[in-house]
Amino acid sequence: MSLLQVKNVSKQFGGLTANQDVSFTVEKAQVVGLIGPNGAGKTTMFNCVAGFFAPTAGTILLNGRNIAGLPPEACARAGVARTFQVARTFTSMTACENVMTAALLLQHNVAKARAAAMQWLAFVNLQQFADKPAGSMTISEQRRLAVARAMAIEPSILLMDEVMAGLNPSEVREAVDVVLKIRARGTSCLIVEHVLEGIMPIADKIVVLDRGVKIAEGTPQQVSNDPTVITAYLGD
């Protein structure tokens, strides 16, 4: 059984159909890229899996349990964590305190939560910022801080929203290294990404949306050579 099963999911906002009958799976310790041109419905699908939107139709199974329609906090307890394109850190709190806010979901003891937070900061190479305000960190560092905070709940799957957008090449490599470390520890990643040169080399599978519909699914090489995908990105 797949870790995550998205089955025939549709999402409508009034008369607008943002996703229509989308299905795909994510296996354990797998990196899946969710790509597509602007307006393809990627973020809407992402938000349905994370619990921010309830699908209009379809099911979303995590470890066999239907989480479709559950609120974000229930999805988090079920094993779904996420980051945002714009890092949502508590800027006046230290990096360690930021991660502790998530660690306390599992560690009902401040000392243990702090110890766990320090471990996750080291995981993303930010241990040197432990006692510094998050607001003093660069965008790239704040995004890695958001990953550390998300991982502190020890999720089954981490949803990452454009973690590489706007980064320079060295920062993209840092983000890629973090994703590979996450996969190596057995956690799956579903990544919405526009930086294709970042996601294509590390993804096990790519799912392509266009105008709310899945138009392709396969390995990065298969998807890159798909005429339908090329047309969606570049036009006829």
Report on this model:
The structure is a single chain. With 236 residues, the chain is an alpha/beta fold. Helices cover 36% and strands 25% of the residues. The protein contains nine helices and ten strands. It has helices spanning 42-50, 72-78, 95-103, 110-123, 139-151, 169-184, 196-199, 220-224, 227-234, and strands at residues 4-13, 16-26, 31-35, 57-62, 65-66, 80-82, 157-161, 188-192, 205-210, 213-218. The strands form two sheets. A six-stranded mixed beta sheet has the order 6-7-8-3-9-10, sandwiched between helices. A four-stranded antiparallel beta sheet has the order 2-1-4-5, with helices on one face. A hairpin with a 2-residue loop joins strand 4 (57-62) and strand 5 (65-66). Helix 3 (95-103) packs across helix 4 (110-123), helix 3 (95-103) packs parallel to helix 5 and helix 4 (110-123) crosses helix 5 (139-151). The longest helix is centred in the last third of the chain and has 16 residues, at 169-184. It is globular, with a radius of gyration of 18 Å. The model has no long low-confidence stretch (mean pLDDT 94).
